[in-house]
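User: I'm preparing a small set of examples for a lab meeting where we compare how different chains pack in three dimensions. I only have the primary sequence for this one, and I'd like the structure in C-alpha cell form so I can line it up with the others. Please keep the answer compact; I'll paste it straight into my notes.
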Amino acid sequence: MNRIRKKLQPRRESVDREASRWQEDFVDYLRSECHLATNTVEAYARDLARFYGWLGSRRIQQMKVSELAGYPAWLLELSLAPKSVTRHIASLKVFFRYLQLEGALTDNQAELLGTPKLWQRVPQVLSEKQVERLLAAPRRADPFCLRDRAILELLYATGCRVSELCTLRTRDMHLKERYCICHGKGDKQRIVPIGSRAVQSIGNYLEKERPRLAARNGSATEHLILSPRGRGLRRERVWELLKKYAARAGMPSEISPHSLRHSFATHLLAGGADLRQVQEMLGHASIATTQIYTHVDHTRLKKVHKAFHPRA
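Assistant: Understood. Below is the C-alpha cell output for the 312-residue chain.
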C-alpha cells in the first residue's frame, strides 16, 4: 500500500503543478490579451477552479467527451441554477480553446458539451410609486444621507450596473449638460442622460458631502462614490445600502441594484422610448437582451395593439 502511495504522490503533484500553471496563464491571457473587465476575469477564474476541483487527478489531455459530460451533471448536483451551469460550461469552452491555441490540446472536447435549457425569467420591476418611496428613503439622520440619495438616484436615472456605479469618476459626470459617461463591460463607454432630480441629488452630494469624505483619505481619489474612509465604495456595500432602504420603504427583500436597472428600462419603454435607444442606454451588445422588457410592460403592448391593429 505504501509503495502505491509513493508512486501516486509524484504524479499527483505533477498534475497539480500543471493545473496551477494553466490556470494562471489563462487568467493572464484573459487580462492582458483579451482585455476583459476585472469582474469577468475573476468569474472565469472561479469557474475554472471549480472545474479543476471536479477534475481531480485526471489529466485534461486524456479526457473523453463521455467523461467530460459528467461535469455539467455534477454542477447540477451542487444545486446551481441552470444559468450558472451554462456560464460554467461557456467558461470551460473558452479555456479549452485557449489550450488549443497553446498547443496543449489537439481536439476541443468541451465544444461538444450541451447546455441546460434556459427559461427566460421576467425581471423584477418596481412600480413608479415604489421607486418614489425607495428614492425618498434616505433621511437626514442617516450618516451619509446625501451620498446614499445620489446612489439611488443614479441607479434609477441611468440604469447603470452596480459595478459601473462604483467605477464612476467625478470627471464622468457632466451635470450642466445633464449626462454621464458609464464604463461598461470590456470598458466600453456610453453616454447616458440624467434627469433634473438626479442632477440635483448628485450636485448636493458633490458640494456638501463628498469633500468631507475625500478629506479622510490621505491621497486624492477620482471615484465619484466614496466610502466613510474616502475610498471607492465596494459593490457589496451598495447592495447592503439598497437592502436597508428597501426595507425602510416596505419593499420586498429580493430587491437588488439590478431591480432599479430593470425598472429604468421598463419605465422608459412605457413612456414611449424606442427599443434601440434603451439598448444603447443600457449598454447591451444585442437587442435581444433588451427585448425582455417588451414582455414586462404589458400596458405598452396593449396601447400599441389598440393604436395600430385594424380590429383592436
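A couple of notes for your slides: The chain has two domains: 2-112, 128-308. Residues 1-12 have pLDDT under 50 and may be disordered.

User: Perfect, thanks.
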